[in-house]
Structures are given as C-alpha cells and as structure tokens.
Design goal:
The chain is mostly helical and 84 residues long. It is built from three helices and no strands. It has a domain of 34 residues.
Length: 84
C-alpha cells in the first residue's frame, strides 16, 4: 500500500461553499432599469390613448321625444280649447 503523509503544521485547504458568479453587462443594465423604473404613466392616460387609437368613437345618442298616442293628444287639445 502507498503511504499518505499529511503535514499537521500546514493549514487545511478551505473549499469555498459558493461557486464564482459572473454577472454580464446586460444583467447589470436590466437590474439598473428595473431599479430606476420608467416614466410614470397613469392608467387612465394609457386607456385614453388606447381608445383613441383602436376603439370606434361612441357618439352620444340624440334625445328621443316620446310621442303620445293620438287619442291622448286629441283629448289634451280638447281640454285646452274648453279652457279658452
């Protein structure tokens, strides 16, 4: 058998628990952009822009005049004529 000798005076080699981590330029730029944030755009403004571009304009409906039946019109006219 081969003999294995270890010097007790020498410090034991310490193995690092964490492997080396490399960070690319793109990761740094992405993290910086996320930390700084973009310009604040309100949701209402985004919704308005979206509707202006893609949604058909909604026209307000013209007010409808409800027409009374003829027999009521005639009765009202007769009552007004009697009052004169």
């Amino acid at each position: 058998m081969t003999e294995l000798t270890i010097a007790l005076d020498a410090p034991a080699p310490v193995a690092s628990a964490e492997p080396a981590v490399f960070v690319t330029e793109r990761e740094v730029l992405l993290a910086s952009a996320a930390a700084l944030g973009g310009p604040a755009v309100r949701i209402a403004r985004r919704r308005t822009l979206w509707q202006a571009l893609f949604v058909a304009p909604i026209r307000p409906r013209a007010p409808r005049r409800t027409r009374r039946p003829d027999f009521i019109e005639e009765a009202m006219m007769a009552r007004m004529m009697q009052r004169l």
